[in-house]
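FAQ: What does a ligand-bound record look like?

Like this one, built around pyridoxal-5'-phosphate:
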Amino acid sequence: MEKKVIRLSKSCLSDEEKKAVLKVLDNEFLGMGNDVKLFEEELAQFFGISAENVVCTNTGTAALHLALASMDIGLGDEVLVPSLTYLASFQAISATGAIPVACDINEATLFIDINDARKRLTSKTKAIMPVHYASSPLGMEEVYNFAKANDLRVVEDAAHSFGSYLKGKKVGSFGDTLCFSFDGIKNITSGEGGAIVSFDESVLKRSKDGRLLSVEDDSAKRAKNERTWKPIVKYQGFRYHMSNVMAAIGLAQLRRFKDLSEKRQMLVQRYLHNLIDESRVKVLDLGFSEIVSHIFVVKILGGKREYVFNGLVANKIQCGLHYYPNHLLDLYRTSYSLPVTENIYSQILTLPLHPDLSLDDVDNVCSTLKRLLAEA
Ligand SMILES: *Cc1c(COP(=O)(O)O)cnc(C)c1O
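The answer part, i.e. the structure of the complex:
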């Protein structure tokens, strides 16, 4: 029998999402309307905050861009960001006209290294964008202390960490401004999609308007199926709003989140159990009891990462590299090196993780990985 491919990640959908989409299609109101408002209300309940604090967008990247723009960050400004992140973090910063300043990370948590960030502070530094790499917010306290001491705004790239906690507090229930992603493979999806959560009134007002071309108070009108015919416009805006179709998918996923997240956590526990006795693989120490892992990243020691990556793929097990360091890209190349990032990049490997995997799949991945390491 042909061996099936074990996918690295995928959207995991039930009949609920399909029914919800059909309902929106039957209503023949596909754009931004009441479903988006409802999704924002249920997200707010999930975070334990007010619905006023949630602004849904059409992608997570748009959320990041819009959050920065709503803080008036732009040309001539600098934003501190770890190099080891999805290109979207960097592009969201440079889209405003600001410069993303690549920083190194902590060896243990892969979180932005504040000591390195401090070295890169200038009079132009306006904000810091920490990334919850592999869903871990460990390091946020240091980031907020650093931001406070240096009068910086904080835009958290929380694309990975939907549903995670930091010392008992849910990510999205506190802070300055956070951005989530609901793209197809994240902890919940709305097809594509994202959300800004902010505790700053001005950022909320600017981003609610900004997602609809900065037409003042258009968000509230659209939720009531009304339009603005004589717009008041004071800022550059974007078409970054979420659609009812997306919100319907997102709502169905949010209502399934308990199952989806428990499955992810169970699979991660299986990985940890299987890999604990494998000395050539180092699992990250991210406080797994408090997080809902979006990706499961391990370090492959002894210079064998490439070999293992290719071997897994040859065995029909997809794996990934999260991420190619941004400071090595042509567009963002730095004159300085980031030794921890560069060293860790040569070791990391992302193993398959999504709620439709079985424990047998994880066992299969781990035994194949161990076999490859034994023969490497
Ligand atoms: C997914 C992701 C984003 C962007 O979200 P999209 O919804 O795909 O635009 C940003 N940062 C990180 C770290 C991500 O993983």
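Follow-up question: can I read anything off the structure? Yes, for example: The first helix runs from residue 15 to 27.
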